[in-house]
């Protein structure tokens, strides 16, 4: 039996769908308050849903009954400063619970981390799996939670856990809708005026799911892999999205000081309304930073060829345009 945690989320749902399409009968965990994703509704007879929060060790133990493989896609994600401590505590403790139970039962794990836990490379170099985030200087709650959660998996590996870690870049795909990375597309569609000088990695959600499955089915253990389709300048990405949606592309450069004003304003508005800020301090600074990722390790490990990001962009734009026209 295969268990997918976080299967109501963007990536988890894609992993579950891919497993079902390959003929697997799977079990998916969800929180009591979670709604089943539209993406998985056509496959409801192929999926056994269980209610199990990773923070609830007893419920998690029941969910793992008869399980031999786990894809861990569950995570608490928030841009709210007030959620920082809870996000770190939840993600780290939940991962620790899963690691301990899987290690005890001899269950193989593919754990979803993030490039947020990888950190930076020296100027002029590509970022590889050998780089690590410096916890003494990092202040972003999400990055810290991903790093410390990954450390729990490394602890488990040192204790005998059979596991692999994946570090995806920004995951995009039509099933995201206007949430998460879908906000980038929706913002451009509504008329984004500014672009930034930064560069970042982007990857199709289907590619991430397929890489995770290929790693699970391999004999690889005790390794981490950056999962990245292409490195794109934000300006180039915004222009391509705008062209696909037949809207005007951003034409004004947002300088670092302007991004600082933006995140401070968003933070203030979020505090007043209780909503997630449109941009936080970390995102604002990252938007002007050039980050180029090396994907040679994953390509050599499983021989994977990533889908062109332009194809994914077209799919996402078409889905959001159709949704907006309803």
Feature tags:
326 residues; alpha/beta; Rossmann fold; 7-stranded parallel sheet; 3-stranded mixed sheet; globular
Note down, in words, how this protein is organized.
This is SDR family NAD(P)-dependent oxidoreductase. The structure is a single chain. Helices cover 42% and strands 16% of the residues. The protein is of the alpha/beta class. It has a domain at 2-173 and 200-229 and 292-307: NAD(P)-binding Rossmann-like Domain (Rossmann fold). The protein has a seven-stranded parallel sheet, sandwiched between helices. Helix 4 (141-158) links the parallel strand 5 and strand 6. Helix 3 runs parallel beside helix 4. The longest helix has 22 residues, at 84-105. The model has no long low-confidence stretch (mean pLDDT 86).
pLDDT under 50 segments (min length 5)? none
Q: Between the first and last Cα atoms, what is the distance in angstroms? A: 40 Å
Give the rounded overall mean pLDDT.
Answer: 86
Helices, by number, come to 11
CATH architecture of the domain at 2-173 and 200-229 and 292-307: 3-Layer(aba) Sandwich
> How much helical structure, as a percent, in the residues?
40-55%
> What is the CATH fold-level name of the domain at 2-173 and 200-229 and 292-307?
Rossmann fold
